[in-house]
Design brief:
The protein is α/β, with parallel strands linked by helices and 223 residues long. 33% of the residues lie in helices and 23% in strands. The structure holds guanosine-5'-triphosphate. Belongs to the small GTPase superfamily. Rab family.
Length: 223
């Protein structure tokens, strides 16, 4: 794991395929940004994915932005995700917008126990469409799926919104770890396919991949 903060100078995001040799550059970072309202669990998701742990208790809001590097094995290739944890608070919004432009992927997160965080997803998508690249990979995550008793956003509501917006969706728990690996793996797989796709190759379908993996792991049962 490697971590960095806002002053990171890593901003070279070009093609990851050498078009002459058709080789994949495993050192190329794929910038992936976690966005969503304050308190939805962005930092907790990243800590769970990176360190396999959940720190319960007091909630300290992220200030600014920081990143963690993770290498994901996809079909015998290494995909280097540089995962940026942003501050959900409104006052940091202009800082995080500046980072959208170079992002290859955005994980858009709401909290299933917090209706406003779900209602704000459309506003987040408007911002993403305004500031990010047109072909950025976007995934919707409904976090805190372990908190069944406090749930106020139904799974079907998340599915419906994601379908309307044409983006993949799953529910996660930073506490139990459910679907966290799958979310990042699916993003890495999509990015790897985009980078290595040859004209006659079958297109990778991220929605179908997620559905097949969810069914394998029985993900949708409440934790
Ligand atoms: N039960 C449960 N609690 C969670 C989960 N994810 C996060 N939390 C709790 O929710 C609170 C907020 O989590 P954070 O990860 O700090 O939220 P954030 O989105 O990074 O917040 P900002 O930094 O303000 O944008 C903390 O108290 C976490 O312990 C989860 O999946 N399940």
């Amino acid at each position: 794991m490697q971590e960095g903060r806002i002053d990171s100078s890593d901003s070279a995001y070009g093609s990851v395929v050498d078009s002459d040799k058709c080789t994949y550059d495993e050192n190329q970072t794929q910038k992936t940004i976690l966005v969503g309202d304050s308190g939805v669990g962005k930092t907790s998701l990243l800590v769970q994915y990176d360190q396999g742990k959940f720190i319960p208790g007091s909630f300290t809001s992220t200030v600014g932005i920081s990143f963690t590097n993770k290498v994901v094995d996809v079909d015998n290739l290494k995909v280097k995700l540089q995962i940026w944890d942003t501050a959900g608070q409104e006052r940091f919004r202009s800082v995080t917008h500046a980072y959208y432009r170079d992002a290859q992927a955005l994980l858009l997160i709401y909290d299933i126990t917090n209706k406003p965080s779900f209602d704000n997803i459309r506003a987040w998508l408007t911002e993403i469409h305004e500031y990010a690249q047109k072909d950025v990979v976007i995934m919707l995550l409904g976090n805190k799926s372990d908190m069944a008793a406090e749930r106020v956003v139904k799974t079907e509501e998340g599915e419906k919104l994601a379908k309307e917006c044409g983006i993949p969706f799953m529910e996660t728990s930073a506490k139990t770890g459910v679907n966290i690996e799958l979310a990042f793996h699916a993003v890495a797989k999509e990015l790897k396919h985009r980078a290595t796709q040859q004209p006659n190759d079958p297109k990778f379908k991220i929605h179908e991949y997620i559905d097949s993996q969810k069914h394998k792991s029985g993900c949708c049962k409440q934790a």
